[in-house]
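User: Can you predict the 3D structure for this chain?
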Amino acid sequence: MDEDDRKLKDRIRDKIREESGKLKLLSWKGRLAYVWDYYKPLMVAIIVIICAINLGITIFHNLQMDTVLSVYMVNCNTYYADPEEMVADYTEYIGGIGDKEEISFDTSVILDDDDYTSNYAYQMKFTAVISAKMADIVLMDVEKFEEYAGWSYFSDLREVLTDEELEKWSDLLVWLENEDGESIPCALDLTNAAKIEGYMIYSDTVYGGVVVNTEADIEMIRSFLEWILGE
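Assistant: Here is the predicted structure, written as C-alpha cells:
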C-alpha cells in the first residue's frame, strides 16, 4: 500500500470514529434523526431513481397494452384502498374490456409538503405522468387539488359532461380558478360518493377532475364518474 492510499484509509477510519463518537452521545431518537439528516441527500436520490424506474416500467408496459382509462388517487388511504379490487369492480360495471386493453387505478402517489424527500420524488413522478398523458382522471384531497387546478391541470367539466349530467351533478360541481384567473367547474366533490365510502379510499373531502390532456374515450370517463358515485 503506497503512502497516498494509507493516508486515505486513515482519513476514512478517523471519519468513522468521529461519526460513531457523535452517535454515542445521542439518544436512540436523536441517533435516528442524525442519520436521517446526514443521509437525506442520498435518500432523495434513491427515491428519485426508484420513481424513475417505476415510471419507465409503466411506460414500457403501456406500449404493450392499450390503457383505456388511467385513474390516479393521490393522497388516498393506501392501507384500505385496493386498486385491483376496484379495477375488477369497475370493469364488471362496464361489461368488460378487450384482451389487449387494461384499466389502471394508481394509489401510490403521496404528495406531502411536510416530507420534502418523498414529496420531491413523487411530485416529479406525478408531473411526468401528466406530461406523458398517462393519467385521465385524478382524485385528490382539497388542498392539493386546488393547487394543481391553479396550474390548469384539469378540464372544464362543461366540455366533458353532458347537459343532463351537469344538471344532475350540479350540487357536486366545484368551481376553481385556473392560471388565467378564470373560474371553471373543474371538479366534482366525491367525498360522499358510494365507492369512496365503500372502499374507504379517502376519509376527508376529496375532489375528482379530468386531466386537461386526457386521451381517454369521453364515454369511459363518464362511466367512471357514474360508477364511483354509485349510479
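The first strand starts at residue 66 and ends at 73. The chain has a mean pLDDT of 82.
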